Amino acid sequence: MSNSGRGRRLDDVATVTGAIETETRDFDRLFAANYTGLARVIWRVVGDGATAEELAAEAFWRLYRNPPASDQNLAGWLYRTGLRLALDHLKKQKRRMHYEGLAPAMRAGANPEEALAQSQEQARVRGVLAALKAEQTSLLVLRSVGHTLTEIAAILYLNPGSVGTLLARAEAAFREEYVNRYGER
Fold it and tell me: Residues 156, 141: contact at Cβ < 8 Å?
């Protein structure tokens, strides 16, 4: 009796193993048939071969890791996924370029003495900001990056009518603390 039970278990294991091998062969065939075409389509969108190959591989990884409910039109699923990945990549690049453009550009040809002086001044300003009240520091930093008074009010949950006064007080407190620490500029 135990032998017949073992035989059934082994048959079940063999069936499962056979199904996995079949799925692997099917996936390999799907990969071989579609990878080059998918990478070419993605390259049309992103314009970079290495990125296109990376995104095509990502599309196949997503298929392998999370296959769709139906095996119908897997190539179409791959192309849709690959194109969405390519478009997401373009959006990320655009966002990155935007934020990098907002960052202050490094001055070309700045000599070491100027760089040291700038670094020391930045350290002084950070020290003064650390000495102020948190609300004052928040006001000054938000204003320095270009937020309007209305935006600052919304970000800090302040009355919009009082932001200008609070900001003027924060600037006065900053000047006073800076002069106390480092003297006149």
Answer: no
| Helix/strand/coil (H/E/C) assignment for every residue in the chain | CHHHHHHHHHHHHHHHHHHHHHHHHHHHHHHHHHHHHHHHHHHHHHCCHHHHHHHHHHHHHHHHHCCCCCCCCHHHHHHHHHHHHHHHHHHHHHHHHHHHHHCCCCCCCCCHHHHHHHHHHHHHHHHHHHHCCHHHHHHHHHHHCCCCHHHHHHHHCCCHHHHHHHHHHHHHHHHHHHHHHHCCC
Give the pTM: 0.48
Q: What pLDDT, on the 0 to 100 scale, is given for residue 10? A: 47
Give pLDDT, residue 170.
95
